[in-house]
Design goal:
Helix content is 30%, strand content 27%. It is an alpha+beta fold. It has one domain (7-191): Maf protein (Alpha-Beta Complex). The strands form two sheets. Strands 1, 2, 3, 4, 5, 6 and 7 form a seven-stranded mixed β-sheet that branches. A two-stranded antiparallel ribbon has the order 8-9. It is elongated. 35% of the residues are buried.
């Protein structure tokens, strides 16, 4: 029997690659290069859904192969906090999040032969109160680079988070439970486990 083609992950995110590999999903990464600028007045959920779909549609695949694309953003007060361009912008984002609750939204899009599945997951995150010195220290680590909302919950910023309500993997960049369920429902090959460990 022919082995199924690996899933195509339309993402450059090391976090998404690591999470999929950890649960035994066979995949190859093919980052989609496109403009991720939010449109004026675009709601956060609509924004990530549009970008995830655009990444999936921009990624080539062979017949019988599946594509998974996702996009994550942080939102507070209705604003989209995407990736910070510099230290000043990162500090401004962290000041806005400090001592408050914000939402992390990840949309995903799965495309196969005549099959398309989409979804979005929202997680609430409480950030502790931060002084200007706290923010400066975190920004100096550089961990914020390439991260929505200018922080990485799986890293040093875990010390800045008081509570998470919902999927933690969603905050990292991919809601694993929901994505794996959608892949199964779509008919994509399941994760391949050998002796209880990812192959």
């Amino acid at each position: 029997m022919k082995r199924p083609e690996p899933l195509v992950l339309a993402s450059a995110s090391p976090r998404r690659r690591e999470m999929l590999a950890r649960v035994g999903v066979r995949f190859e990464a093919r980052p989609a290069d496109l403009d991720e600028t939010p449109r004026p007045g675009e709601p956060p959920v609509a924004y990530v859904a549009r970008i995830a779909a655009a990444k999936a549609d921009a990624t080539t695949r062979s017949p019988g192969q599946w594509v998974l694309a996702a996009d994550t953003t942080v939102t507070i007060d209705g604003a989209i906090l995407a990736k910070a361009d510099d230290e000043g912008e990162a500090a401004a984002m962290l000041r806005r999040l400090a001592g408050r609750t914000h939402a992390v939204i990840t949309a995903f899009c799965i495309v196969g032969d005549a099959v398309r599945r989409t979804g979005a997951v929202t997680t609430e995150v409480d950030v502790i109160a931060l002084t200007d010195a706290d923010i400066a220290d975190y920004v100096a680590t550089g961990e914020w680079r390439g991260k929505a909302g200018a922080y990485a919950i799986q890293g040093i910023a875990s010390a800045l988070v008081a509570a998470v309500r919902g999927s933690v993997t969603n905050v990292i960049g991919l809601p694993l439970v929901e994505v794996l369920a959608a892949l199964r429902e779509a008919g994509a090959p399941p994760p391949r486990l050998v002796d209880g460990a990812p192959a």
